[in-house]
Design a protein that fits this description.
It contains 2 helices and 5 strands; from the N terminus they run βαβαβββ. The protein has about 80 residues and is α+β, with helices and mostly antiparallel strands. β3 (about 50-55) and β4 form a beta hairpin. It has a 5-stranded mixed β-sheet with strand order 2-1-5-3-4, with helices on one face. The radius of gyration is 12 Å and the shape is globular. It has helices spanning about 10-15, 35-40, and strands at about 1-5, 25, 50-55, 55-60, 70-75. It has a single domain, classed as Ubiquitin-like (UB roll) (Roll).
Length: about 80
């Protein structure tokens, strides 16, 4: 199956987009959680505060479906 991961900022640098400036196409084999997929593409789950898939807030144990576009949000920081 194929999913698309999107993000901006420093998280985007780790994601290494290849579809456009914000999006990475990822081929997933088997039934994997978003946490497992992130690990495979080199994005530490500590850099992801939450994810949106199909208009819903999802946890990192979410198991994507073929064609899902998942937007990753890094933790908020600053002062």
């Amino acid at each position: 199956m194929v999913i698309f991961l999107r993000s901006g900022g420093k998280l985007r640098d780790k994601l290494k987009p290849d579809v456009d400036e914000y999006t990475k196409r990822v081929e997933v084999e088997g039934d994997k959680s978003l946490r497992e997929i992130l690990g495979e593409v080199g994005v530490p789950d500590s850099l992801v505060a939450f994810a949106f898939a199909n208009g819903k807030l999802e946890r990192l144990d979410y198991r994507p479906s073929d064609g899902d576009v998942i937007t990753l949000q890094p933790p908020v920081s600053g002062g």
